[in-house]
Amino acid sequence: MQMCDHTPKADELMQARIVIVQTVQQGTFKEDIKSLSKGEIVSKHSPLRKLDPILDSDGVLRIGGRMSSATISWEEKHPIIIPKNSHVATLLVQYYHGKVAHQGRHITEGAIRSAWLWILGGKRLVSSIIHKCVTCRRLRRGMEKQKMSNLPVDRLTQAPPFTQVGLDVFRPWSVCVHRTRGGLSESKRWAVMFTCLVTRAVHVEVVESLSTSSFINALRRFTAIRGPAKLFCSDRGTNFVGTCKELGITPGNAELQSYLKDQGCTWDFNLPHSSHMGGVWERMIGVARRILDGMLLKVHSPSLTHEVLITLMAEAVATMNAWPIVPVSSDPNVPTVLTPAMLLTQKVDSVSSPSVDLDLKDLYWSQWKQVQGLADSFWKQWCQEYLATLQPRRKWQADQPNLQIGDVVLLKDSQAKDNEWPTGLVVNTFPGQDNRIRKVEVRVVKGDSPRVYSRPTSEVVLLLKGP
């Protein structure tokens, strides 16, 4: 078959345009065109009634309107009417939307109107096409969201302090190690924060490096002081991953099955790039930073020493553990404030010396009763007041459509520009207990080899729904 290399002329293109418009209009406004061709007006039930339609010399339906006296061209006074439910209307909107570089509805409508076209119900059609436009999604669509999940049982069950623990490392400080002839020799220090998921108590250990051995030593000091833990939760920092490898931990389904087998402890890793999933301890790190910044302003020494740093850290921890975990009551009959320190120290005020006439047995009995009473009071308030504060969802309150296998998504890459993020395909989804998808596996081709990444849905942008 011989290919035709004939280039259509302007009059041929104009004739083709007239034929296409006539065909589209005949399919939707056949009765109105018949009435106008007979010199009659359109039916009062016709959607064209308000537009006062007319037929031009080519039999094309145009707007009559009220602009006949305007000093503009005839085509501008009488735009061609296009029904919105036709495929031609969709193609026209897509064409002019691309012509204006994928701008919003207002600019796209202006381009269509400037082409002397009037699409009935054009606003909704333009909005619908822009909403489905893959290029616009790539340029401006936000990350996927999903309704906030229910709290895990680890945060809702009474347990001794630091039984379920979230941990993270934060903030290097430069400290003076020793003096030299040239001045001061400095080194860096980091802090490992252990946060009790139940009582919101915190414990901080200072480490000299982000190496695996330094972290293991901090972990050993923590367990020696606070006792063994049953669950550790953390992000996927390299130091945590290295710790688990050195201790012989084998991960399964992105979750560590065992940790310190002799203590029966498990370790859960959050998804990569999902710091919001560890908000219960990430927030405490922000509080610690603000407290330490305020304390360091009072340190007038030109250099911070290791001893001063660990002292300030201990005072910051004491301040955080004295932080009320429920709203402070204005009732004078409820003078005590529920804080983690009540359970950790078994003290609500300064320790007073016992009376001199108190027998030693009575002293032991009285102290035991006081300790037990404080613990009972803490857990009673914890159940009645603290748990109630966890009920509302402060954001992510509405259900959102779940991502599905086969969806085409944009994978967020903080090291690249937005328009350079890689495009991937959802190959697996992981529904939660409420059947909502918050974790997906995305296959991305980098170079010549495909790679699969586990990501939260808040790190992907939906471009195109799958089949």
Task: Characterize the structure shown.
With 467 residues, the chain is α+β, with helices and mostly antiparallel strands. 36% of the residues lie in helices and 21% in strands. The protein contains 13 helices and 16 strands. A hairpin with a 2-residue loop joins β9 and β10.
Helix and strand arrangement:
Elements: H1 10-28, H2 30-37, E1 53-55, E2 61-63, H3 74-77, E3 80-82, H4 87-99, H5 105-114, E4 117-119, H6 122-132, H7 134-140, E5 164-180, E6 183-196, E7 202-207, H8 212-226, E8 231-234, H9 238-246, E9 251-252, E10 255-256, E11 266-269, H10 279-296, H11 306-321, H12 340-345, H13 360-389, E12 408-411, E13 423-431, E14 437-446, E15 449-456, E16 460-464
Parallel strand pairs: 3-4, 5-8, 8-11
Antiparallel strand pairs: 1-2, 5-6, 6-7, 9-10, 12-13, 12-16, 13-14, 14-15
Order of helices and strands: HHEEHEHHEHHEEEHEHEEEHHHHEEEEE
Give the number of helices.
13
Strand order of the largest sheet: 7-6-5-8-11
Overall spatial form: elongated
Strand content: 15-25%
What structural class results from the helix and strand content?
alpha+beta
Biggest sheet, in brief? Answer: 5 strands, mixed
Strand segment tally:
16
Question: What is this structure, in a nutshell?
Answer:
The protein is 36% helix and 21% strand. With 467 residues, it is α+β, with helices and mostly antiparallel strands.
